[in-house]
Amino acid sequence: MNASAKNRRIVFPSAGVCALEESEIPVPGPNQALIRTELSLISTGTELTLLNASAAPDSSWQDILTYPQYPGYSNVGTVTAVGPGVAPSLVGARVLSLGPHARYVCRSVYEMIVIPPTVASEEAVFGIIAQIAMGGVRFASLRFGDVVVIFGAGLIGQFAARFARMAGASLIFVSDRSDFRLSLLPAGSSFYPSNSTRENVRDLVLAKNRSTLASVAIDTTGNPDRMESELRVLADMGRLIVLSSPHGKSTIDLDYVNIHALSIVGAHNFTVHTPSAVPGNPYTLRHDSQEFIDMLSRGQISVKGLITHRDSYQNAPALYEMLTKDRRNALGVIMNWAD
């Protein structure tokens, strides 16, 4: 590596501002590896909230809305150096990690997933988003034949729909305001897209499910004002899984919840995944990202149709501006870190 080389990374120096900055190339510490980034994926929900400080003043988001912010947590690249305690044989490996949007990142080897040659980098980079959806769907305790309503057809909603089908759901209704995002759902008789600007998904569920409401609803929108109406798609003893990170407080009719014996289940990624694998519960964060990579390798899932934008990291400010203005036609937004 050129001794005069510099790192480049994306930064939100203040609310509403995205920029590129130079920094020193990090040096890997114990049990870390230095990764030269190939691709990184924008998590539009999280990153736009951080960029635009778009959360209520009394939201728990306020605890992390400090600047500067260095966004990103979906990174694929090649290991170029390792720190103490790491086998030198890892150098040259292509890996998925939680690294931010930067040319070089240092990450713990315990979070990295080595990507096999059979899996393309632009598919592997979805492995962290898929992990979030996988954990939430598992936490929903789906049973064979369950009817599920998913609110939001962004990336997490797209993966939640696919994993719900794999977990045994017979009918999956997906509500979103974008016809484009809804068009990217898998084809087949199990999936029912519903544009929330034109129809009430509750009515659609009743029409397609023999006048019976759903057993499970999954929120991926983060809109606190929607939680109350989302409960109304559930049959007695139904479960609302909050897979998003709501941007404020919700008002819920607890009497309605009580009468219908409904459950509201928080499913934050770091909580639903066990910190360490134990007998009967091997489902760590790393486990689910590895499972997703294995599913790609086995041909059990494909994400190529979810990629809507490919661009150079050098155009990051324009990309974030575009997403802030209107992200209805954006889903998988991948940045290439080639020089």
Note the topology:
Blueprint: E1 7-14, E2 17-23, E3 32-41, H1 44-52, E4 75-82, E5 94-97, E6 104-108, E7 113-114, H2 121-124, H3 127-139, E8 147-151, H4 155-166, E9 171-176, H5 179-183, E10 191-195, H6 201-208, E11 214-219, H7 227-231, E12 234-242, H8 254-259, E13 263-266, H9 269-272, H10 285-298, E14 307-312, H11 316-325, E15 332-336
Parallel strand pairs: 8-9, 8-11, 9-10, 11-12, 12-13, 14-15
Antiparallel strand pairs: 1-2, 3-4, 3-6, 3-15, 4-5, 5-7
Helix pairs in contact: 3-4, 3-10
Q: Features of this protein?
A:
15 strands; Rossmann fold; alpha/beta; 7-stranded mixed β-sheet; Quinone Oxidoreductase, Chain A, domain 1; 2 domains; 6-stranded parallel β-sheet; 339 residues; 11 helices
Provide a descriptive summary of the structure in words:
With 339 residues, the chain is α/β, with parallel strands linked by helices. It has two domains: 154 residues, Alpha-Beta Complex (Quinone Oxidoreductase, Chain A, domain 1), CATH 3.90.180.10; 137 residues, NAD(P)-binding Rossmann-like Domain (Rossmann fold, 3-Layer(aba) Sandwich), CATH 3.40.50.720. 27% of the residues lie in helices and 27% in strands. Strands 3, 4, 5, 6, 7, 14 and 15 form a seven-stranded mixed sheet that branches. Strands 10-9-8-11-12-13 form a six-stranded parallel sheet, sandwiched between helices. A two-stranded antiparallel ribbon has the order 1-2. Helix 3 crosses helix 4 and helix 3 packs across helix 10.
